[in-house]
Every structure is written in C-alpha cells, then in structure tokens.
Specification:
Blueprint lengths: L12 E5 L4 H12 L3 E6 L2 H11 L3 E5 L5 H15 L4 E4 L14 H26 L6 E6 L3 H4 L5 H21 L4 E8 L5 H4 L3 H8 L10 H12 L10 E4 L6
Parallel strand pairs: 1-2, 1-4, 2-3, 4-5, 5-6, 6-7
Helix pairs in contact: 1-9, 3-4, 4-6
Length: 250
C-alpha cells in the first residue's frame, strides 16, 4: 500500500535460540520491530516467556534445550503451528565453561561442544529441512565468535566449538543452497553483556587496547548484522562469516 513502510522481515517467522537475554534478546527485538513473528527458544522457560511479553506483538517463548534433538524438533513444530512457517533461524544459544586445559574437565569440554556445536548442527538440520520445502527458502544464522578465529586462553572448548560452527556453516550452505536456503555466520567480539560487565578492570583494559574502535560493542550492533543476514539485503550471500568486533583480531 502506498505510504506504508513494510518491515524488512514482514510476514516472516524467525526462531532465535538463547534469546531470553543478551545478544539473542537484542536480535529478537530488532526482528520483531521489522515485522517478523518471533519464537524465543531458551532453556529457561519462564525467562523465555518474560522476554516474549517484553517484546510483545506476535512473539512467543518456548523452552528448548538446543542439545536435545527432540526439543529442537518441538521448537520448529511450535513455530509452524503458531505462525505457519520457519523463515529465519538464529542459532544463538551458548554457554561458557572456561578453564585452562590442565584444569578443564571432560564434562566442561563436552558441555560446551554439545550446546554450541551440536546445538547449531541440530538447529541447522531441522530448520533447513523445513525451509527447503518452502518456495521462499530461508535464512539460517549461526553465532560463532572471534574466539573461533584466533583461539583464546582458557577457552579450548569454546574456541573449538566456535571454529567448528564456521566449518559447519560453510558445509551446510553448500548442501542447501540449491533450495534457496542461505546459511551464514556472525563472529562477535567484545560485546556488552552481563558476562563482560563483570570483567575485572585490568582485563577489560587489555582487551579494549586490542580494539581499533576503542570501545565495547553493544548487542544491538550484532542484532543489526543478524537483520542484514536474515533479510533480502543479503540475498546473494551464503557461507559467509561476518566479524562484529570493532576491528579486534582483524
């Protein structure tokens, strides 16, 4: 209709995992603001419900353990039952279990790999199976990290998982591109979250010294890149890895 500005994601359904807080919540807010119906998946059901109410509109919260194939399938099924399609998936859910290799337990390693790498694989597999049967295809966005590019001390588990997500993204993009399904990744750097806000002053200063832009990033700045990848603005991009780091470790 003339004079009406349509959102970039108008009429689409987006699933964002780990979206009850932090970067995931920022993405959910931005997507909803651009007209998307939003499904917030989170391990904490009450937090997912609260987040959905905060955003409002066509937004629902669903409990989901991304490392559980049954939970992922239920998340996809709920999205379709509620809104009729799955057009965008952001595999954002994650945990940290930092420790040096000497002190890291097998459980700490396995937990991080399971949530980040297996969880991203399960989400990508389930969403792409639905998207490839839709005439419109779809967009899958996998959250990696600058830690997956350079490796960070005390994060052999996290760095391995985040590097694996890059390989997974590129391989999946080759498998499903024929059906109009795009798979891309984002590598955030130092972003303002509850985790970074609790950082010691000396550690924060050392990390800021590595960033050419000289500041910590905001979750909304990652969300805008996710919007770009979710929308038709990136219609000829797949298998790409976009760094949102302020230039850190370029």
């Amino acid at each position: 209709m003339k004079g009406v500005n349509m959102g970039l994601l108008e009429g689409r359904t987006s699933i964002i995992t780990g979206a009850a807080q932090g970067i995931g919540f920022a993405i959910a807010e931005v997507f909803a603001g651009e007209g998307s119906r939003v499904v917030i998946g989170d391990l904490d059901a009450s937090a997912a419900d609260r987040a959905s109410k905060m955003i409002g509109g066509s937004t629902i919260g669903v409990r989901c353990d991304v490392a559980d194939a049954g939970d992922i399938d239920a998340l996809i099924t709920t999205a379709i039952a509620s809104f009729g399609s799955v057009d965008v998936l952001v595999n954002n859910a994650g945990i940290t279990r930092d420790a040096t290799m000497r002190k890291m337990t097998e459980a700490q390693f396995d937990d991080v790999i399971s949530v980040h790498l297996k969880g991203t694989w399960l989400g990508t597999r389930a969403a792409s199976a639905v998207m490839r049967d839709q005439d419109s295809g779809g967009s899958i966005i996998n959250m990696s990290s600058i830690s997956g590019k350079v490796g960070l001390l005390g994060q052999t588990n996290y760095s391995a998982a985040k590097a694996g997500i890059v390989g997974l993204t590129k391989a999946a993009a080759k498998e499903v591109g024929f059906a109009g399904v795009r798979v891309n990744a984002i590598q955030p750097g130092l972003i303002r979250t509850p985790m970074t806000e609790g950082m010691r002053d000396d550690i924060l200063a050392a990390r800021l010294a590595e960033i050419p832009l000289g500041r910590v990033g905001d979750p909304s700045e990652v969300a805008q890149v996710a919007l770009f990848l979710a929308s038709d603005m990136s219609s000829y991009m797949t298998g790409a890895v976009l760094e949102v780091t302020g230039g850190r470790h370029m």
